Amino acid sequence: MNLLTLLLTALSLLPTPSYTQESSSSSSSSSSSDEDTSSTSSFTVTAYRSNSPINNLALTIFSGRFYLGGRTSSYCPPGVASEGECPPGNETIIIGDNGLSVSVPGGQQIYILSTGALSFTAPHSSYMPPGSSTGPFSYTPGTPYGSWNYTGSPGGFIACPVKGGAGGGSSSSSVPGGSSSTPKPSSTPTPSKHSGTPSSSYVSPSVSPSATPGAGGGRWIVYVNWKNATVPGGNVNECLGFGARAWGKNASVGAWEYI
């Protein structure tokens, strides 16, 4: 009996193990931080050049090119539309340094044509014409706005006036969520050794230049700031340099695909 008493006494003197559990508030805070980081990587752009016709104009995509002002051209497949799953598609949203905020598998990437004009890859394809480059671009978040910039030499963007026949354009889209006319399919271009290879044999909507530049209402087409850029009218001195203000967007995606 004395032995049992001694054993019980010895056991009572052993240290009790303790466990530390991460509080739900800490976990929630971490999750919230991740979401904030994700949301601030998407943004829209407006031009800044005081006392000029381009000041505060929105950066828009129309028919394979970037403009200041006008409307954004996007497309959403009828099957997606019938499920009510089309993103708004009415504004141009960039994600990261040079991606487009889209749902289409494979995404879409911004690049620079050999002329200096900004363009982007077609849906379902990584093809870029010979002489194209993917930047470098840089996005810096900020409050109430950050900045987006071309950081190659000498850096920055220019907006060049569209020459001739620029009209307001009209939308004939019958697809909910899209803000463009229904795209016409085009053949997948033949890749060169200097460019990406189309990811599939899918016949993509065309992202070739509009037959009427500025038909989406944008009167200023966007180029990187190259002195030898091939611009409308041929005179780069008619173009206006501008700062690109980046406005953070708390949105999942901007469009199913841009065209």
Automatic annotation (TrEMBL):
The keyword Signal applies. Keywords: Signal. It comes from Aspergillus vadensis (strain CBS 113365 / IMI 142717 / IBT 24658). It comes from the Eukaryota. This is IgE-binding protein. Residues 17-40, 168-214 are annotated as: Disordered. The keyword Signal applies. Transmembrane segments: none annotated. The lineage of its organism: Eukaryota, Fungi, Dikarya, Ascomycota, Pezizomycotina. Residues 171-213 have a biased composition (Low complexity). Residues 1-20 form the signal peptide.
